[in-house]
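Researcher: Following up on the earlier apo prediction. This time include the ligand. It's S-adenosylmethionine, with the SMILES given after the sequence.
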Amino acid sequence: MAERIARALSERGELVLLRRDDALELRVNGVFVMDTAHTATERALATATLRQVSGDGLRVLVGGLGLGFTLHEVLADPRVGEAVVAEIEPALVDWHRQGLLPDGAAALGDARVRLRVGDVADVLQVGAPFDVVLLDVDNGPGYLVYEDNAEIYRSGFLTRCRDRLAAGGVLAVWSASPAPQLREALRAVFGDCTELDIPVVLGSTETSYLLYLAERPHS
Ligand SMILES: C[S@@+](CC[C@H](N)C(=O)[O-])C[C@H]1O[C@@H](n2cnc3c(N)ncnc32)[C@H](O)[C@@H]1O
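Model: Understood. Below is the ligand-bound prediction.
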């Protein structure tokens, strides 16, 4: 049985936070988005990508906030100087601030965090170049949470990401299933793309989630 912890409506529909057994679960319009029981790949999105980048005072874009696991790993890296967080659902930000999500309020209170409530496509354009751009706004290009996000996985937006990265900066995209079209689009835009296939055990089911990483070349 699941217990409803919070519910909100936005122009995109219904956002619900549930407690199921010991885990919290986020659903949008009835669709499972993520839970707090299986967060290894959300965390790896940050750690595997930051490992590819050198330097200090790194400027990182996290899109979206979700349950906050990617952001926690970003903030755990002392080389990160600024973490710009784009989250389209204001209610989710409120739930973090109200303490409904593990360590959410503390993370958003970190002096390095710049929270932007809005579309990551708009937030991408603001300020100095990014060293890292982390995209986890759907269940991947094959399983959109919001149809409007379809553009995020296409060449036009990926080119904008490349152009907003510093030389040597890395874009990473999370996906629940293999995304060959995304991989080829990243190869076309960046010249190369690394696909990381990470095994995940969901109850009695063994599957894997994927990360797609692409680096902006130095010249
Ligand atoms: C799968 S969750 C992110 C999970 C996150 N990586 C974590 O560790 O918890 C997706 C989040 O992206 C947000 N989102 C969806 N589309 C967005 C967009 N276009 N811009 C910004 N945030 C968006 C959703 O509201 C949701 O909070």
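Model: The chain has one domain: 38-215.
Researcher: Noted. I'll compare it with the apo version next.
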